[in-house]
Amino acid sequence: MKRRDFLKQGTAIAAGGTALSGFAIGKPGKSANSKLNIAFIGSGGWIARQPYEQGCAEENLVAFCDVDRNLSAENLRNWKATQPFFEDFRVMLDKMHKEIDAVVISTPDHTHFAATLAAMERGIHVYTQKPLTHNIWQARTLVKAMDRYQVVTQMGNQGHAGDGIRQSVEAVRAGVIGEVAQVFCHNAGPDMGSDHFANPTRMPPPSSPVPAGLAWDLWLGPTAARPFYEGYLPKKWRSFYDFGLGMLGDFGCHTLDTPVWALDLDPPERVECLQRANSLEGVIPASSHIRFHFPAKGGRGPVVLDWFDGPQDWSKVGRIDAFGAEHAAHLGRACWMVGSKGLLGCGTHAGAPLILPDDVREAWKQKPPEPSLPRVAGGPFREWIRAIKGDGPAPGSNFRESARLTEIILLGVIAQRTGREVKWDAAQGRIIDDDELNRFIKEPCREGWAYGETL
Prior knowledge:
single chain, alpha/beta, Rossmann fold, Dihydrodipicolinate Reductase, domain 2, 29% helix, 19% strand, disordered N terminus
C-alpha cells in the first residue's frame, strides 16, 4: 500500500468512518509525505503557542489567520513565519483549503463553531480550543458534522490526554471509593477587574477607538454589531456572555472532565442556580453556586454535582466533612468525587488523583486497578496528529465526547446567566417549563456567518 493511500485509510478509521473526502496529504505537493499541512485560525497570544510548541511545529505550517495583526506579530516573528497571513478565516479556507490538511482554532468562544464547521465542510481536520461551542445547538451540530465529513476532531481540554485523569477514571470505575452520588467542583475565579476579566460600570459599555491592526467587525463574527470597548480585549471578552461563558466555560471544561468521564454522565435532567452575585445584564457574576442533577445510569444511582466559582465562605458551602476532607477547596483540589468508601480529588486540569482516607489510598497504591484506558504519548496535539496520519485511534476528546461535556457546561451557564432553574429534555433538545430560556439553545447569527443549517 502506498504511503498516501495508507494515510487516507488510517484517517478514515481514526475518524470513525469508512470514507474520507480528499485532503492535501493524498495529493501531489509538498505534503505528500509524512508531514501534515496545518493552518492556524487564531495565531496570536499565548493560547496559539501551545499547539506550536506541542507538536504542530514539527509539521508543515502553511497559513496563519487572526483578526488582530499586532497580537499575532510576536508569535509570527518568533516562529520565523513566512506563510500567508489572513484576517478572515473564510477567505483563507476559500483560497487554500486544497493545501490544508488540518487546522487549529484558537479564537474566542463565540467564533469556535463557525470556524470549525467551515473547515470540516472542506474535509479539514480540526482541533478546537475549549469550550467547543457557544450554545448547545452548535455542539450537537458539530457531532453531526463529524459523522458526515469523517474528519479527525479534538477539543482542547488538555488534561483529557494525561495519565492522571485515566488513573482517576479507572479508580472510580473499579469501585476504589465505592458508589459516588455527590461531586464538588470549584474555581477561585473570576477576578473581576483583573487582566483576565472586565468589570464594566454599565451596559452597554462605553465605546472606545478601535486599535490599529484590529479588524473589529471580523472579531465580532456571528454576534450582533456593536461599538468597540477597550475592556473586551485581549483577554477580558470571557466576562461577557455574548462572547464567552465565564469560569464554567473556561475551567469547567477541565475540572468537570474527570467526573463526567469517570461516572459516564449524560446531560442533567435539572440544573439549579442556588446563588449568584449581582451582575450587569450580559456580564458574568463574580461568584455563583450551580447544582446539576444527573439521572441514574447503568449500575450507578443518580449523581448531584455542585459547582462553585468566585470567593466562597467554605464554612457554609461545599462541605464534605467525611474521609479527611472538609470542603470542596480542601487540600488544593478543584474536584472531589464523594463515594461510599472514600473520596477522590483531582486538580483544576485533572491531574493525578488524591484518594482519602489514608487506608483506602494506600490500598489503591499497593494494588491499583489494571489499566483499561489507552495512554496518550506526547499530549493532545500529537494525539490528534497521529490519528490524522492513521498512527493512532480517535482522540479521546473528539467531538462526540467533548460535545457531551460542553452540553453539560452550557446548561450550567444558562442557569448561572439567568438565575433560574433549567429543566432539560435531552431527547428533544429543549428546556421545559420555561420556554423563554430556549433562546439560549440556538442563538441568532449575523448574515454571512450561518453554518450547519442543513445538517
